[in-house]
Amino acid sequence: MNIKKKAVSLIEVLIGVILSSILLVGVMNLLTSGLKDSAKSLTHQDNMETANILMSQIEYDLSRATEIINPDWNDEGNGALWVFDSNSVDSGRMIFSYDYADPQKGVHRHVEGNKIFDNYFAKGHFVELKFKHFAVDAGKGEKEDFIIEKHGMWVDLTVYSKDITEANKEKDKEAFTMRRLIVVRRPF
Q: By CB atoms within 10 Å of each CB, which of 85, 105, 137, 139 scores lowest?
């Protein structure tokens, strides 16, 4: 009996290794691309949530304002200062101020009344925060004669990724920007 053994040649092994490598490189590129997109999505979501939390707090505080001190009428600034007069014995007259501290501390919310509160929002993020106080008068004449019909504040807020600095903020594709008009309910 004559039995022939079939063996795999070195060329066949080499072709198998090359085809497997090409397939493996394609799968790895697909996984790497998916992980990068997922990381970008999570960063954008973090920036969006940070902006929403900060904007909600500003809106809550500002909607109760009885006097806007800074910025002046139809002027804008990077910080804001307003007063809330409460009928409550516990709170009395409260002064709110918002300004951007630095990425490690975040946006500083200072409340001064019977008690003093210091809160920081957007810690670790580079934030651009702008306030523009608008007032529409119902009458004519000098500024002292204005009868304010409507007033409030435009708030522009941009939250950048945690590793972004002032120098490279234009490169941040995951930055989240929102602009909101907050109308002050109480006339002053």
A: 139
Distances (CA, A) of 176 to 7, 116, 128, 144, 169: 62, 31, 10, 39, 12
Tokens found for residue 175 = 């930055």
Structure tokens at 38: 């997922």
Show the tokens assigned to 93. Answer: 């007259």
Phi, psi of 84 (to 5 degrees): -125, 115
Q: How far apart are CA 41 and CA 48, in angstroms?
A: 10
How many angstroms separate the CA atoms of 175 and 122, rounded? Answer: 13
- Dihedral over alpha carbons 50, 53, 58, 61 (to 10 degrees): -150
Residue type, 99: D
Query: Nearest 10 degrees: CA dihedral of 134, 140, 145, 147?
Result: -50
